[in-house]
Structure formats: structure tokens, C-alpha cells
Amino acid sequence: MKDGVSLRSGDGRVTSDGRGLRLESLAAVDAGIYQCRAQGHQDSALGTALVMLGDTLPMLKYRFIEQSLQPGPAVSLKCVAQGTPTPAVSWLLDGFPLQHSPRLVVGQFVNMEGDVISHVNISSVSVRDGGLYRCTAANSVGNTRHQARLNVYGVPMVRPMGEVTAVAGEQFIITCPVGGWPINMIQWQKGGKKLPLSRRQTVSVNGSLVINNVQRAIDEGDYSCTASARHSHTSTQPVTIRVL
């Protein structure tokens, strides 16, 4: 019995040979008071054990996959996480927080097994929804994350970035938040000059700008990102980098 209720084999995780009890894939719901009773002709005996679960690093039981599709259909991206304490799941698109809208909703709930089910539901996907999605499950022990692309066919569309913050002496990474697929080239500029301008700067194939050992006097300022596709379709957005 668990918490006074008889346990039954059959859910795939609980097995018993009459002498011992085995639980597979231990989850938060398995914590509690377990009892075993031995019955004889004239008497019986009862044994009791308390099962407590310590803190555990979050793990992802389910991860969404990369998709490539035309604009229009509904799309759902899902991550299922478990851990103790119960983790919270957050989402980013190309490194920026997701912008909720009537078309895009982020939600999560905890099921009976203690798993956190988090999802991004897009009612009618458009070009601007394309990019690298990341889900991160975090609790007091640590965090784990997963990322994959949602490719939506169409001309480039760089989303607004506004102002971002870097820390002097540390590495800074920013990804050009572009929708549309396929993309042939992504370029970064500062003051009208194409990057990189020094060995501290790198522009990766996926459109990320990496600045090592950030220096306020040199690296702070106004930048821009331009995404290009075939047939001369381009999209550009500015971003201001402040250095603390």
C-alpha cells in the first residue's frame, strides 16, 4: 500500500513479486508512506517505510523537434520537464523573450506524476514566427535546456531588438532574430562598417555576433543586423548595445 491505498501492478512502472516492490522511473508523485502486510493463518504483521525524494537537477522527458513549413497552419512546441523541486519552464526565440499575442500563447501545467508540461501554441504560424526556439527548465539545483528551429518559408523578416546589455570584460552573444526561410546570409554592422572589425568579434553562420572581452569604449553603441535571401530580399533592424 502507498498512503493507505493498495498498489497495483499494471501501469508499467510498478512491479511486485510478492516479496518486494519495484518502482521504475521514480517521480515526485512516488514520495510517501509505503506499507507491506504479511498475513498468516492466525496473525499478520505490518511494515512501514517513508520514501523521501531529495533535490534533483531538472531533466527533459520530451523535446520538440525542428520543423520546416509554409505559413498558415497551427503549430505547437512542447517540452516536458521533471525535477525536485518542481522546475519552471521558460521560452526564448533567438535569445529574446517570446512576445505573447492573440496568435501565440505560452502555457504550462503539472500533471499527476509531477511532470511540468510547457508548450508554445501558435494558432496560425507566420514568417515572423520562424527562428531558434529554446525551452529551459530550472529549479534551485540547476537548469537544462533544449533548442530547435522552426523554419517558416518566406522572405527575411528581422524582428525588433531594441536595447540590450553587455558586461565589460565578459563574452557577449546576440543572435539576429530573423524569420523567413531559407536565409542566404546574415551580416552585422557597427557605424556603417561590416563586422568583424577585430579578433575579439566573430559572426557565426547562424547569425550570432560574439564579442569576447567586451570593452565599453569600443563596443558600446548602435549596431544593425541584415538578413538576405535570394532575389535581393533583405531585412534590417537596429540594436543598441549598452556596456555595464
Automatic annotation (TrEMBL):
Residues 58-151, 156-240 form the Ig-like domain. The keyword Magnesium does not apply. This is Ig-like domain-containing protein. Gene3D superfamilies: Immunoglobulins. It is found in: Membrane. GO terms for molecular function: cell-cell adhesion mediator activity. Signal peptide: none annotated. It comes from the Eukaryota. Pfam families: I-set. Keywords: Cell adhesion, Disulfide bond, Immunoglobulin domain, Membrane, Repeat, Signal, Transmembrane, Transmembrane helix. InterPro entries: Ig-like_dom (IPR007110), Ig-like_dom_sf (IPR036179), Ig-like_fold (IPR013783), Ig_I-set (IPR013098), Ig_sub (IPR003599), Ig_sub2 (IPR003598). It is a single-pass membrane protein. GO terms for cellular component: axon; plasma membrane. The keyword Transmembrane helix applies. Its main location: membrane. The lineage of its organism: Eukaryota, Metazoa, Ecdysozoa, Arthropoda, Crustacea. SMART domains: IG (SM00409), IGc2 (SM00408). One of its GO terms (biological process) is axon guidance.
